[in-house]
From TrEMBL:
It comes from the Eukaryota. This is Putative NDBP. Residues 1-23 form the signal peptide. It comes from Superstitionia donensis. Keywords: Signal.
Length: 54
């Protein structure tokens, strides 16, 4: 019983570590993708976005 508990605890810790690193990776990739699609990398506010089309 103790062995199963230790294995379960280690597995939960490893899954938590993996899911956090995966989330950071996907959020960075998704954020860069959205920025590149919208083309707003150098904009600091939406006012500058409006100025592009004037």
């Amino acid at each position: 019983m103790k062995t199963q508990f230790v294995i379960l605890t280690i597995a939960l810790v490893l899954v938590q570590m993996f899911s956090e690193s995966e989330a950071e990776f996907h959020s960075k990739v998704w954020g860069d993708l959205v920025k590149s699609l919208l083309g707003k990398r150098e904009l600091r506010s939406f006012d500058q976005f409006d100025d592009l089309y004037e």
